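Input (histidine kinase):
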Amino acid sequence: MPARIPDLPTNRLPPVDAPGPEPLTGDDLAVLALEQMDQGVMLVDANLTVRVINRRLYEMFDVPQGFMPGADYGQIIQYLARRGEYGPGDPDAVASRHLDRARRADPPLYEHRRPNGRVLEVRTSLTSAGGFVRTYSDVTERRRAEDDLAIQRHMLRLTLENMGQGIVLLDRDLHYIAWNSNALDILGVSEEVMRGNPALYDVVRHQIATGLVDLPVGAPDFGGDLDAKTLYLMDRIGRPEREFVYARPQGDGRFIEVRVVPLPDGGQVRTFTDITDRVIADEALRQSREILTGVIDAIPALIDVKDRDGTVRLTNRFYRDTYGPAAAPPPGPATDRATALDRLVVDSGQGVPFHEDRAPDGDGAIRDWLTTKMPLTDEGGEVTHIVTVALDITARKRAEAELRDAQASLIQAEKLASLAQLVAGVAHEVNTPIGVTLTAISHLGEVVGRIRTLFEENRIRRSDFQEFLDVAWESTRMILSNVERATSLIQSFKQVASDQASGERRPFDLAAYVDEILLSLRPRLRGTRVTVELDIPAGLIVDGYPGSFAQVLSNLIINALVHAFDEGEAGRILLSAREEPAGWIEMHYADDGKGVPADIRPRIFEPFFTTKRGLGASGLGLSICANIMTGTMRGSIALEDGEGRGTRFLLRFPVRLDV
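Output:
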């Protein structure tokens, strides 16, 4: 700590109540003026002796008043340096640098940042006597304000430059005074040109001349008169009275949306948004709507969309072709039922599952329909529309009726029950692809509704439209494949029913016939690593229906290949049979595959139950086995509890059907 600087006369004023008031001299007035200044002041003579320091300077440097005047300036600098006023470094070296700069008043103006963060602006002026005067102004708040303003300006510039839009500011004379880089790109002018604060007229003229902007459709033909074209555009878009938005194509292939916002002082803010993607998306959406309409029109099902009041808002071509110019079902009980179901959907918010209905078409002909109703809801869950999809199953119902008639004339009474179950089953099987079709249609409708909403709200994005295309394509593929599958199932069922009806009863050697069945399955088994072993004694004669028995055994083996073993996995199937008790055959089927999970064991003989629906399995195999064994073979089939890995079935049937 430096020695205390000797006390010399200071510039402090005498107390107000000092006795003997005397007239103020010129020096006293000067001292009074210094004490009232908001700046700190220091006067140093040619000998570097401090002659004057006002109160404000003491306060700025946190030094007791009266401590420094009369001291050597170098001592003061050393004292402050030791206190850390000038940062790290040797105090003597710091004092030497400051003395040299002070004598030369170099620099005459600089800023000093104190350790407490305050910023002082220091001005140095040389006196005629060889000394100097220094003034210290606290500019901390001003610097903070300037820094804040600089940060705000920087943030504003960053914001403008990172905007996806172009933006410009024009003064009351429509001269450009501010802009961002996106605006320069869209306007087609350079930074240098814009710094010259060109007029809107000149920029528009430049854009027309370079082909970046053209006159709107319907504009007069001005030929090559560039000024006439510019004036025409300026009259239309130069000074709108209120906020004005318009879109224009650019010569570079982009579409630009321009928004003009007049300002109270006569200036303008103009924003430029590249809407090329949106325009392309809108066009693609229009095309996709046409495609979607074509797809819906191509679906062979009635599709209509009603609002919650029952007014039809949308129909497909099949609907219009069915009901003719009236485009609505004729009044009657069927229409009343449909209205009641529509109201049920609105009130409950739930769809109506597939159900069969009968109603006349536009020509009055009675048709059979497989119908479902689904609600469309808003964001609040309130039903806004009802979608009805109805498949014309008249031909199917007619085919079923013809099939039932054929069964009545071709098969015995006891077989009729079995075939009737299959007829009922095929309706359920056909419902599956139809249900998938209608679900796909429903989902497609929801996606169409969502993409429509996005379009109407001008929020559609490329990803939204890509998702819509993917869903539309997948739904179309799903609809077509499932309709084809339904048709194939109906034809296959008719063939199976015919084969069973024409089957003949005859005696056959069980072991030999099983060999024949395996021979017919050899192409299917050849592509696997599954082997079939037999333990059936020769000479075991069965009087029954070999065709039906072959179907049972084939279904069991094929079912194992599909469900019990993974592709390429080695496996073993064992078929064994004995006559026990006398007059009855007990045949055991056993494989070492995956086995049947406990949760689905009770359902494996249900019609159309399968765990591999999407892989081509119909779920009819074991159901057919159960029907044949209980009906045609007059026996039974049961799933046995597996001991370890694999699946085991027990088949029991009489040696002779009359037993």
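The chain is about 45% helix and 20% strand.
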